[in-house]
From TrEMBL:
Keywords: Cytoplasm, GTP-binding, Nucleotide-binding, Protein biosynthesis. HAMAP family: Rel_fac_3. Increases the formation of ribosomal termination complexes and stimulates activities of RF-1 and RF-2. It binds guanine nucleotides and has strong preference for UGA stop codons. It may interact directly with the ribosome. The stimulation of RF-1 and RF-2 is significantly reduced by GTP and GDP, but not by GMP. It comes from Mesoterricola sediminis. NCBIfam families: prfC, PRK00741.1, small_GTP. This is Peptide chain release factor 3.
Length: 521
């Protein structure tokens, strides 16, 4: 297959959701449909079924959650799907956000009873800021939930995004019967499936087909007809341009657990989701997907294999055909390197790959070489826009168990911070140890664990009351005109840590000549 065909058949995406909305279940079902696994239930170890492949780190195993985010590849209908992992638990990290820098589209998964929840909002903003097209899948229709129209309004009110139904639920909760597919005017009536199997379709056909409508009660049929009429007259038609511009979101209904509506979603997803496209360069211009090989690192993961203490850098291929053993320029290091053992994740398996294409995620064994944002290029010294750092929301002070270990600690913390696990802030005016910030608390546990096991430097951590960091532009505020703590980040940029929004607002008001930015410039 030529390069252009390989590009056109790829879809690289992430699922964003609040914990418990069903992301793991949906992922399992997508793999099930693709044939990457023969029975659902193997993505995440549940009910003592042991740990799934992605639980690499000890700490993950202790907690039974996944700290890392990488990607899984699977095929469906001649397409290659790369699903980026976005850890969804409460303690999610910058990695979750960063995964979105490698995605071409996003599936926003909502629990039909809960609608848009906190973590979904945060992730939505990142996806939307990046201009990613967003699908919406409303899950758990087999349970009582909110009215579809209410959910549509909520998405519009919160995000200014028009959710346009592509499917429509027939009934809900125990009476959920199936979905109406607007594109075809067909209804799918489901029979509940046994755990881990594909849903059986009890019937499929047009609304006027007596055999199909007989599967619904007269009330259900009438209600559906009314709903369809309402949709067609009141809601805007789906417009691909509007979707790709991030202004419309195609909306699907179903139940991941019961496999309802998954195939209907997947089919339309493949048609609508964009294939890998050009990526802008920092210096202006862009790299088209058919240019020679380029890729950028969006995640560095340490200790995936405890026996080898290796580090893996995950790089998203932006352009060109990657071949194992090829040479590429490591742009930051200004050195050509040979890419010998790239890994990819197929379903649950981690394999060495010989070839990869735009949209694919390579796992590169990293002897301390790669940092987030690094570019590999067979097209000369190109640089993409920096992979953003996200503003931390949790902060700790550290104390060394052995005060003599300061040097080792600083080295360890610097290396681990370069991987993007935590951010380092030095109090202005001097302090022997920095304040550390992270997007989620779990990152501190990861840091503590790694300092102890990799750098033989056990530390104690004390939570600090700060809630946010802002980077200051225009100088430092006058001593009596700010609330919070002045700090410098690891690159010496001026920042301030605030305990609450009042401090932030008041400081901004008292310093109109300064700007306080959520992300470093
Ligand atoms: P997450 O990764 O987004 O955190 O969610 P996960 O898939 O783990 O699902 C959270 C819970 O919601 C699980 O139940 C899961 O079975 C359930 N769930 C997912 N999809 C559906 C659905 O379509 N309908 C219903 N009724 N439930 C759904 P659990 O009790 O936490 O785990 P388990 O013991 O059932 O595995």
């Amino acid at each position: 297959m030529n390069l252009s065909d390989e590009i056109q058949r790829r879809r690289t995406f992430a699922i964003i959701s609040h914990p418990d909305a069903g992301k793991t279940t949906l992922t399992e079902k997508l793999l099930l449909y693709s044939g990457a696994i023969d029975r659902a239930g193997s993505v995440k170890g549940r009910e003592g079924a042991g740990h799934a492949q992605s639980d690499w780190m000890e700490i993950e195993q202790e907690r039974g959650i996944s700290v890392t985010s990488a990607a899984m590849q699977f095929e469906y209908r001649d397409h290659v799907l790369n699903l980026l992992d976005t850890p969804g638990h409460q303690d999610f990290s910058e990695d979750t956000y960063r995964a979105l820098t490698a995605a071409d589209s996003v599936v926003m998964l909502l629990d039909c009873a809960k609608g848009v929840e906190e973590q979904t909002k945060k992730l939505f903003r990142v996806a939307n800021d990046r201009g990613l097209p967003i699908f919406t899948f409303v899950n758990k229709l087999d349970r009582p939930g909110r009215e579809p129209v209410e959910l549509i309004d909520e998405v519009e009110e919160l995000f200014g995004l028009r959710a346009v139904p592509m499917t429509w639920p027939i009934g809900s909760g125990p009476d959920f019967k199936g979905v109406y597919v607007r594109a075809t005017g067909q209804i799918q009536v489901f029979e509940r499936a046994k755990a881990g199997r594909k849903a059986r379709v009890a019937g499929q056909g047009s609304l006027d087909d007596p055999e199909i409508s007989a599967l619904l009660t007269p009330d259900e049929l009438q209600r559906l007809k009314d709903d369809v009429e309402l949709m067609d007259h009141v809601l805007p038609a789906f417009d691909l341009e509007e979707f790709l511009a991030g202004r419309q979101s195609p909306l699907f209904f179903g139940s991941a657990l019961n496999n309802f509506g998954i195939a209907e979603f997947l089919d339309e997803f493949l048609d609508m989701a964009p294939a890998p496209h050009a990526r802008p360069l920092a210096a202006g211009g862009e790299v088209g997907p058919e240019s020679p090989f380029t890729a950028f690192v969006f995640k560095v993961q340490a200790n995936m294999n405890k026996a080898h203490r290796d580090r893996v850098a995950f790089a998203r291929v932006v352009s060109g055909r990657f071949e194992r053993g090829m040479d590429a320029l490591h742009v930051r290091g200004q050195k050509s390197i040979k890419l010998n053992y790239p890994h990819m994740f197929f379903g649950r398996e981690r394999l060495i790959v010989d070839e990869a294409f735009p949209g694919d995620i390579l796992g590169l064994i990293n002897p301390g070489l790669f940092r987030i944002g690094d570019v590999l290029s067979a097209a000369g010294p190109v640089e993409f826009h920096a992979v953003p750092r996200f503003s931390p929301e949790q902060f700790v002070s550290v104390r060394l168990a052995d005060p003599g270990a300061r040097k080792g600690f600083l080295k360890g913390v610097q290396q681990i911070a370069e991987e993007g696990v935590v951010q380092v802030f030095w109090p202005r005016g001097g302090a022997p140890l920095p304040i550390l910030g992270a997007v989620g608390r779990l990152q501190f546990d990861v840091l503590q664990h790694r300092l102890k096991t990799e750098y033989a430097c056990p530390v104690l951590m004390e939570p600090r009351g700060f809630q946010m960091a802002r980077w200051i532009q225009g100088g430092w505020p006058e001593p009596s005109r700010f609330w919070g703590e002045l700090v410098e980040d690891s690159e010496g940029r001026a920042a301030i840590l605030f305990e609450n929004d009042w401090q932030r607002r008041t400081t901004a008001e008292k310093n109109p000549d300064l700007t306080f930015q959520e992300h470093p410039a």
